[in-house]
Specification:
homodimer, elongated, DNA-binding
Chain lengths: 210, 210
DNA sequence: CGCGAGGTGTTACCGTCGGTAACGTGACCA
DNA sequence: TGGTCACGTTACCGACGGTAACACCTCGCG
C-alpha cells in the first residue's frame, strides 16, 4: 500500500474522520458513504467496520466538532460578565463558529435525518440539544426565576437555541452583514426590545388603524 | 375499475393528496412514493404524472395545510389587540395547530431534506419561511423600530419563528403541559423576562461567585 | 522454516428508494 | 371503423445504505 506507516486503530479512525470532514466540507451534509470512503482512499466496508453505520460515523464526527463548540459555549456561559454581555458573548461564540465553517455547521445543525429515525429526544440535532441543555442549566443556576425556575429554564433553553439557530441560518446568507451587529439584534430581541418599542405611528394594519 | 365515477383531474389530484396525507399521518414525513401510491390504489408513475417529483407532491401537500395555518397566523397578526395579547394569540395559534396534528406538522416543519437539495433560501422549511415572512412584514408595519426597521424586522421574523418552532417541538414532547402555559413562557421570553430577572442569590457559577 | 490467526482490504452483491421508458387498454369521436 | 388521448400498468435504471464472502499480508509460535 502507498500509506507509509500504519498507525494503530485509533489513529486510523481519526484519519477516516478527517476524510469524512473534507468530503462534508466540500459536498455538504449529504455526502455518501461511497464518497467518504473514496476520499479516504478505501472502500465502504472499512468505514462500516470502524463506525457501524452511517449514524455511527456522523455521531463520531459530530462529537469531534461539537466538543470544541460546547466547550467554548460553556466558557462563555460561565464568564464573569454582566448578563447582557454574557449573552452577547454566547451568541457571538456561536455565530463565529458557524461562520468559520458553514458546511460543517450545517452538518451539525441540520443532519440528514435519513435512517436515524426514532429520535424522540426532540427535533433539534444532538449537538444543538447539548447546547440547549447547557443553556438551560446556566439559566437555572444564574437567574432567579421563582418557583417555575426549572420549567422556564428548560423551555427557554430550547427556545433560545432555536432562535439563535434560525437567526444564524438567516444571517449566514446575508452578504456583508457584520457579526457583531447580528449579535446585537438577537440580544435586543431577548431583551424585549420588540415588546418595548412604540407602535408604528404610520401603521395601517395595527389596532389603532381604523 | 372499482372506482365508481371518475371526477375530473383536479378532483383526482385531491384524492391523491388525501392518500398521501393518510400515509404521512400514519408513517411520518418519510413515507415513500410507493407507499403513497399503494394507499391511493395505484402505482408510482401516476403520482409522478400528477406531481412531477416527490418535491412536487410534498409541495402540493404542504401548501394545502400551510394555507390554513398561514391564514390563521395572518389573522392573529392583524387582530385588533394590544401587542402582548396579539403575540400570545399568534403563538397560541401555532401551538394549537401543531398540537392537533403532530405528524402533519412535523412533515411541514421538518421535511425530508432528501433530493430537494439546493434550497439556498435558508434551512427553515418553506412553510416556516412563509410564516417568518409574514411575521417580518407585520413587525415592520406595526412596530416603530427606527432606521434599522427593515433589517430588524426580517432578522426577528426568522429568529422568532425559530424560537417558537424549537419551543413547540419541545413542548409537544412534554406530557400534560397546558398550552396556554407554554404560550406565556414564550411570550415572557420575548418580553425580556430573562433579561429583567434578578441574579440568582444562591448562584455558584455567576460572576459574583468568587 | 512452516503454519494458523487476525486484522486490512477488496469485489460483488442485496433491498429500497426516487424516477422513467415502454407498453397495454379503454372511452370517445370523426 | 379507425384514430387519438388519457389512465394505468410492468419493468427497468442509477444511487444509496449496508453486508457477505473472499484475498492478502504480517505476525507469533511450534
Amino acid at each position: 500500500m502507498v500509506s507509509p506507516e500504519r498507525a494503530d486503530r485509533a489513529d486510523r479512525r481519526e484519519e477516516l474522520l478527517d476524510a469524512a470532514d473534507r468530503v462534508i466540507r466540500r459536498e455538504g451534509p449529504r455526502a455518501s458513504m461511497n464518497a467518504i470512503a473514496a476520499e479516504a482512499g478505501i472502500t465502504k466496508p472499512i468505514l462500516y467496520r470502524h463506525f457501524g453505520d452511517k449514524n455511527g460515523l456522523y455521531h463520531a464526527l459530530a462529537q469531534r466538532h461539537s466538543a470544541t463548540l460546547l466547550t467554548r459555549i460553556r466558557e462563555a456561559l460561565g464568564a464573569p460578565l454582566e448578563r447582557r454581555e454574557r449573552v452577547e458573548n454566547v451568541i457571538d461564540t456561536y455565530l463565529a463558529v458557524i461562520e468559520s465553517a458553514p458546511q460543517i455547521y450545517r452538518f451539525l445543525a441540520h443532519p440528514d435525518p435519513a435512517a436515524e429515525g426514532l429520535t424522540p429526544a426532540g427535533p433539534l440535532a444532538p449537538t444543538l440539544q447539548s447546547i440547549a441543555s447547557e443553556l438551560s442549566a446556566a439559566i437555572a443556576a444564574q437567574v432567579d426565576l421563582g418557583p417555575d425556575r426549572e420549567v422556564l429554564a428548560e423551555a427557554w433553553g430550547q427556545a433560545i437555541t432555536g432562535m439563535v439557530l434560525a437567526g444564524g441560518d438567516w444571517w449566514l446568507e446575508q452578504p456583508d452583514f457584520p457579526r457583531d451587529r447580528m449579535v446585537q439584534i438577537l440580544a435586543d430581541l431577548l431583551w424585549g426590545r420588540l415588546a418595548a418599542a412604540a407602535d408604528n405611528p404610520s401603521a395601517t394594519n395595527n389596532h389603532n388603524g381604523h
